Amino acid sequence: MWDLLSINPFFGLFITFFFFLLGTLFHRRWPSIPLFNPLVFAITSIIILLLITGISYDNYNEGGRFINLWITPATVALAIKLEKNIVYLKKYYTAIISGIALGVLFHSAILVMVSILFQFNEELVATLFPKSITTAIALGVSESLGGIVSLTVAIVVFTGVLGTIVGPPIFALLKITDPVAQGVALGSGSHAMGTAKAIELGDVQAAMAGLSIVLTGIVVVILAPFVMGFVGALF
């Protein structure tokens, strides 16, 4: 039965949407439980289902791959929120741009230090470098730098989940109440998943998070060759 179902492209689409929507329901009921983050719940559930039934990833991906087509349009659609709150960008553009640039530089410096400490090779550095940008950009960066693309995806998801979990408590602990600061932090640190959390907090946070995704991606793409060149010289 499972073999007959799995060869149908709609099977991959169905179980992806089913588990994501189920995770959404659970997340609304128990928002404090990390496992019930819709994306985490869907990924975990699909992996378990494939292992139990013996369905190959290739069969699942016949339908699941169509989900990837929506990654870029979904990212671009965040501009709608930005257009409605453009006044905040005009007012705080210096702080936003400089903050994101410094954040990426700091992230790059830490990655280089960790690479030296644990003797990472260039392939692993290339895999880790785009971890804080949205999947649509991270895949291209990882591939162009010679990273392990599938591992990059897993790390990007983990980074996004971690950011959505620890972000709001950090805001509360440090008394960060400014919506612009919250949005920039979530968008630049946790990409699309952080933006989803920002949408829950408010329109301004959502707009700034959407903007931060784009700006962070641009800065990472610009810095990537220099970082990898430096790492290559070290090793």
TrEMBL record:
Pfam family, one: LrgB
Membrane spanning stretches: 6-26, 38-57, 63-80, 92-118, 148-171, 211-234
Keyword Cell inner membrane: no
Location (main, coarse): membrane
Subcellular locations according to the entry: Membrane
Keywords: Hydrolase, Membrane, Transmembrane, Transmembrane helix
GO CC term (a single one): membrane
Molecular function GO labels: hydrolase activity
Lipid bilayer topology: Multi-pass membrane protein
Keyword Nucleotide-binding: no
InterPro entries xref list: CidB/LrgB
Name recorded for this polypeptide: Putative murein hydrolase (TIGR00659 family)
